[in-house]
Design brief:
Helix 13 packs across helix 20, helix 14 packs antiparallel against helix 16 and helix 18 packs parallel to helix 20. The chain is α+β, with helices and mostly antiparallel strands and 587 residues long. The strands form 3 sheets. Strands 3, 4, 5, 6, 7, 8 and 9 form a 7-stranded mixed beta sheet that branches. A two-stranded antiparallel sheet has the order 1-2. It contains 22 helices and 11 strands. The longest helix is centred in the middle third of the chain and has 44 residues. Strand 1 and strand 2 form a beta hairpin. It is globular and about 75 Å long.
């Protein structure tokens, strides 16, 4: 067993150290003024220890936080992961109880003082960028996949910070930072899953008191036993679509009844709840009628990145188990890791994991950039200062890229995680199917990742509009124009050609009928991931100049580019015969 899940992962450390966050952190730290102004503020827990004086100082702080969490993951969580899965969360008489191992992990989080990590200093947080948070999510998920849904729902606090009024933030956010409360994202209903515009849970306003009350049933709510719920409810009488929805904060009390928890295939330590609200006191978060299009979408985008990181963490655990077993297992007089059929699977697993991690970090940097620009623009508006054209242009670019890359990350990382855990079990052979080995647990846990927080099919829909508009060209064109090491010269020639095919496919589908776009959308997403990820790995090799990074780029490209070229052939033919025959096939 590893001693530290951060220190033992050189690729994860590379991602954190090379993340281009100087601009972001400068804005988040308000010119690094926090270190001086908050040093003695009682609400700023550990400010004198953590608040950075410059970007290098901020990077040192990240390493400290990640090493603390890495040690907890290795020494507290991972050794009891099988126990947490076996016991699982339990339910009796409306009360949900975490497994004992889960309770121990939560207590370790509290004692570490790293909760509320993305909240501003003034609320006791650590003001970390989203990018660093994704590294934390990955480590927790590697240690125990189900625990991520408890730790990862700190996004609830970030949404409150982004949209709630000052009084609500002052009341609730310090409690998140102290680990006194955890959150739940309460969107789904029995008849409103992917189609959240049809939510029927209702919120009513008592005009005399100005207080809101929520009534209705929610289903499939991850960590629904949490203390603080963000509930999507219909606030406008007579409305039937998304324009009648608002977001509400509900603190769980006797009016909030957990009716059951689901008996699931995996992530057993994470309770998935059905909840009844009966005149539950509520606080409006953000503006009325902005519940779905602003608050919920912001919340879901953060959750989708977290689920992508969860899939990478589980895949990392599966790969390490498979690599260890292949080195120990002997067949035909030698360890199976030396057999080409097995080693090829392991190389493929490692390449896909590193590519997904690169994609998530690239996405997170753009998401951080967008949030920092929005924060700065809001501050300028409040101060009555003139707008900054450079800031506005950067915000627009970040918004466009985040809109494409967030669903692409969720799509690729979670599909990748399923492929890797499938291969991880295959490397183990028959014993991988047995409960005594971790391979089957990883296989079960990862399966939910390409389903919840928006299925893979919904991620295709989310990315398609701006992808067809060639929204990735701003990055692809810059990478195609850059020089590469001599060892990658031949790969670059092929990659430029495949990138051109991808752009032709975007143009072909951009002018095609809707049925064609929907039919070939997954092919285009697969192609986008293969091309974009290969460029990211090539960029790594250019920056680092290490032989291993060059070898990784070559290995990943050898597996993925032929698939991308195959997708291009299918798209450019625009053969619609399968679509036209679907009614006969399914009859």
């Amino acid at each position: 067993m590893a001693d530290n899940f951060y220190l033992d992962n050189p690729d994860l450390r590379f991602r954190v150290e090379k993340a281009d966050l100087g601009f972001v952190v400068g804005l988040k730290e308000r010119g690094y003024s926090y270190a001086a102004t908050l040093e003695n503020a009682p609400s700023a827990r550990n400010a004198s220890r953590f608040a950075p004086r410059d970007f290098a100082d901020a990077q040192d702080n990240w390493r400290l936080v990640l090493e603390i969490l890495g040690e907890i993951c290795a020494s507290v969580i991972a050794p009891r992961a099988a126990e947490a899965d076996e016991e699982g969360a339990s339910y009796e008489n409306g009360v949900v109880t975490y497994a004992k191992a889960t309770q121990a992990a939560i207590e370790a989080f509290r004692k570490s003082e790293i909760l509320g990590c993305m909240l501003p200093w003034e609320y006791g947080g650590l003001n970390l960028p989203e990018t660093v948070y994704q590294a934390m999510i990955e480590m927790v998920s590697r240690a125990e996949g189900g625990l991520m849904t408890i730790f990862g729902l700190q996004e609830i606090a970030s949404t409150i910070n982004e949209f709630a009024d000052e009084a609500t933030k002052a009341s609730y956010l310090p409690r998140f930072s102290r680990g006194e409360v955890f959150g739940a994202m309460v969107l789904t209903e029995p008849d409103a899953g992917s189609d959240l515009g049809s939510v029927q849970c209702r919120a009513s306003l008592d005009e005399a008191t100005g207080k809101w009350r929520v009534n209705g049933v929610k289903r499939f709510i991850t960590n629904g036993n949490a203390d603080i719920h963000l509930v999507l409810a219909r606030s406008e009488e007579g409305s039937k679509d998304a324009r009648g929805l608002s977001m509400f904060l509900v603190e769980r009390d006797e009016t909030v009844r957990i009716r059951r928890i689901e008996n699931k295939l995996g992530i057993h330590s994470s309770p998935t709840c059905e909840i009844q609200y009966t005149d539950s006191p509520a606080i409006l978060v953000g503006k009325r009628r902005f519940g779905l299009m602003r608050c919920a979408m912001a919340l879901m985008n953060g959750a989708r990145l977290a689920v992508a990181a969860q899939a990478v963490g589980i895949a990392e655990a599966s790969f390490r188990e498979a690599l260890r077993y292949a080195g120990e297992r002997s067949q035909f007089g030698k360890s199976i890791v030396s057999l080409p059929a097995v080693s090829r699977m392991l190389v493929s697993m490692k390449g896909e994991i590193e590519a997904a991690r690169a994609l998530i970090f690239e996405t997170s940097v753009w998401v951080d950039t967008l949030k920092a620009c929005e924060q700065k623009q809001e501050e300028l508006e409040k101060a009555g200062a003139p707008s900054d054209p450079v800031l506005i242009a950067r915000k627009k670019q970040a918004s466009n890229l985040a809109d494409i890359l967030t669903p692409l990350s969720k799509y690729y990382a979670t599909e990748m995680g399923n492929r890797v855990c499938y291969k991880g079990m295959q490397v183990h052979g028959g014993v991988g199917y047995m409960r005594e080995f971790n391979a089957e647990r990883h296989y079960r846990d990862v399966r939910i990742t390409n389903i919840y927080e928006g299925t893979s099919q919904l991620q295709v829909v989310a990315a398609m509009g701006k992808m067809l508009g060639r929204g990735l060209d701003v990055l692809l064109d810059a990478w195609m124009a850059a020089s590469v090491p001599e060892e990658l010269a031949a790969l670059k020639i092929r990659l430029v050609a495949t990138t051109g095919l991808f752009q032709k496919c975007c143009d072909a589908l951009h002018g095609a009928e809707r049925d064609a776009v929907e039919y070939f959308g997954a092919d285009l997403m697969d192609m986008a991931a293969a091309v974009f990820n290969t460029w990211l790995l090539v960029r790594d090799a250019c920056v680092v100049g290490e032989a291993r990074k060059i070898e990784m780029a070559l290995a990943y490209a050898a597996e993925q580019l032929p698939k991308a070229e195959g997708s291009a052939a299918a798209i450019l033919l625009l053969d619609m015969s399968a679509i036209s025959a679907k009614d006969r096939i399914l009859a």
